[in-house]
Amino acid sequence: MKKIKFYVAASFVALAMMMSSCMSDGKNEINEYGCGVIDFHGNNYAGQRVLYYNDYYFPVAVNSSSFEPEYVIAQVLVDLDNEYNADVATKGYYSAGSVQIYDTIDALNISYSSENEEDMEPIYNEGVVSAESLISWVNSTLFIGLGVKAPKDSDIRNRLYFNPNQIPEEVTHNSEKIRVYDFYIRTIVDASSSTTEASEELYYAVPFGKSSDYNRVLEKEKESSNTSFGIRLKYAKSIDEETGEIEWAGMRVNSEYDYLAVYVGNN
User: Fold this and answer.
1) Considering the entire predicted model, what is its pTM?
2) Which pLDDT value is given to residue 3?
């Protein structure tokens, strides 16, 4: 697992997806810093990759022969007074004045599971998550952060499982009934021999849009004429040493919600 340098990670957790417009040398600019997805864009850019931020995107040059998406921390500076940005409403995208990629983020892909929560038992070397954060949702990709306490220099791996046949929980969200689907993070810690405990901060991009099981749920929600549904990422908060019972917790969006409401039209 590739670990992002702490100073970069801390910055994008605090500032992820923050956009500010300012006047500089008489020019109106957007200076945006946060998480992004580099991928192909529909039929409009055959053979060209774009950098997705929020609900818009920037054409970028990528020195890569890979056809897979790339998940990055980037900063984009856009001159809104530039003639190339005069018809953004028509084009649907901004022309970036400059793009700087700070780092890449590993994907945490979704794997199929037939288990329900009540059937789950601890797996070999299962660890617990001591801190978590939902950072941003970009182009059907969820960026998350996990904190895991373990002996220094331990090998820590995470897996994400989803049972598409589960019965979702129905909740009221902003006066609307929505269905919430649970995804389970399983943390495996191959502990080192160190007697010093450390807190590892791991960051992932979860490409929901690339999961066939997720897309089936999305289609089901569309067929039901629902405008939104919920994604809840659950992790092992603690494991009882005697009974092996796992205490599950949902990653929180804020103090009120432990799930992310996703609008069907934004997928």
Assistant:
1) 0.84
2) 44
